[in-house]
Amino acid sequence: MERSPIDFDDVSPIGGALPAPEDTPIVVVDDEPSVLSFLRKVLEGEGYPVETFESAQEAFTRISQGGIALLIADIVMPDMSGMELVRRSLEEDPGLSVLILTGAADTESAVESLRLGVDDYLQKPISADGLIESVVRALRHQAQADYRDKLEIWLRSEVKRRTDEVQQRSREIEVVAVATLSTLVRAMEAKDPYLKGHSERVARLCERMAQHMGFDAQDIEDVRTAGLLHDIGMIAIPESILHKEGELSEEEYRQVRGHVEVAAKILEPLSHIARAVSYIRCHHERLDGSGYPQGLRGSDIPLAAQIVGLAESYGSLTERRPHRKAYSSKEALDTLNASRDVWFEARVVDALEQVVKSEPEPAGSQPEHPGSD
Ligand SMILES: [Fe+2]
Predict the structure, then answer these.
(1) What does the alpha-carbon distance between residue 86 and residue 90 come to, in Å, rounded to a whole number?
(2) What's the 283 CA to ligand 1 centre distance in angstroms?
(3) Across the strands, what pairs with 321?
(4) Distance 312 CA to ligand 1 centre (A)
(5) Ligand 1 center to residue 184 CA distance, Å?
């Protein structure tokens, strides 16, 4: 932990007398001039700056200006009672230290002083030592309160700074994790002549479709990430199934369908791409409920997941497979048009069509013959 920015010596909660700094005087208010001059003499003798007032109203005007270390107030005064002055002063400055010094002590005002949080309730006549003892105690009490306030502020800011740091680091780690997983996907696909570059192409298509549909920057990034990692769950599917040329058995098909849940499990710890993961989990759901894993219908399927699903379908159709040649763009779009409002919302199919027509997939993005490279 870094060194606290507080000057601990400055507000030490222990130690001896704490003279008020010169710009924070002790305000003394009493309608008896002899009392005022006694208090001034004693306090100034101890090095405290003092401002005296015979009028409670004038004292209040001064207190309202702020910068007061301590208020010492009489109770019985002609223009305003000391209790009223204290109540109003504490409303102005709740942290103000206050001593009551009265010649007419009574239970009622003593209880009221306690209620207001007055530091000490003193009776006249008071000795110089007794006064100084109370002043030091009140100022020390205030210094401790200031110290606690500063410490709390510093601790809060320190905790926030550390939390931000940890979050920033965890974001960086998660970004690295996504980059690592993308590399893994690329490596997996590189081994397969039919799939080489598939996820990159799907990701690019997802990004362009999301842009075309007016998604904001974060949504576009989430859809692109979902496109990039949509089939990472295929890692759990045996190669014998992935490369099987004939029809899949029911059990094999069940395993292939499991790739979405496997992907979601692999990616679950990456909280910053949680939305992308939810799109991956839903990218084989279809509007008519015929999809998997949950058989969601209609608007229960996120639009972004439909983008990933349609981009994946288009990507697959335009790639060679063991049992068929690659579809042309037009053939793929015609085929997918049949799924309009059945598997995918019309606006998603339209987006694909617009995007593909505006910028067709560059030729040669996949080897013409498996194993040719
Ligand atoms: Fe998939």
Answers:
(1) 6
(2) 7
(3) 324
(4) 7
(5) 16
Six token digits for residue 59: 């004292």
φ, ψ dihedrals at 344, nearest 5°: -130, 145
Length reported for the chain:
373
For domain 191-358, give its CATH number from 3.40.50.2000, 2.130.10.10, 1.20.1070.10, 1.10.3210.10: 1.10.3210.10
Cα 171 to averaged position of ligand 1 atoms, centre (Å) = 26
pTM greater than 0.90 (yes/no): no
Per-residue pLDDT of the chain (373 residues; tens, 9 = 90+): 444 444 444 444 334 445 455 568 999 999 999 999 999 999 999 999 999 999 999 999 999 999 999 999 999 999 999 999 999 999 999 889 999 999 988 899 999 999 999 999 999 999 999 999 999 999 998 888 888 888 999 999 999 999 999 989 988 888 898 888 888 888 888 777 778 889 999 999 999 999 999 999 999 999 999 999 998 998 888 878 877 777 888 899 999 999 999 999 999 888 889 999 999 999 999 999 999 999 999 999 999 999 999 999 999 999 988 778 899 999 999 999 999 999 999 999 999 999 999 876 554 455 443 333 3
How is 79-135 classified by DSSP, letter by letter? SS-HHHHHHHHHHH-TT-EEEEEESS--HHHHHHHHHHT-SEEEESS--HHHHHHHH
Strands 70-73 and 120-123: unpaired
CA of 339 to the centre of ligand 1 (A): 17
CATH architecture of 8-158: 3-Layer(aba) Sandwich (3.40)
Rounded to the nearest angstrom, the distance between the alpha carbon of 270 and the centre of ligand 1 is 19
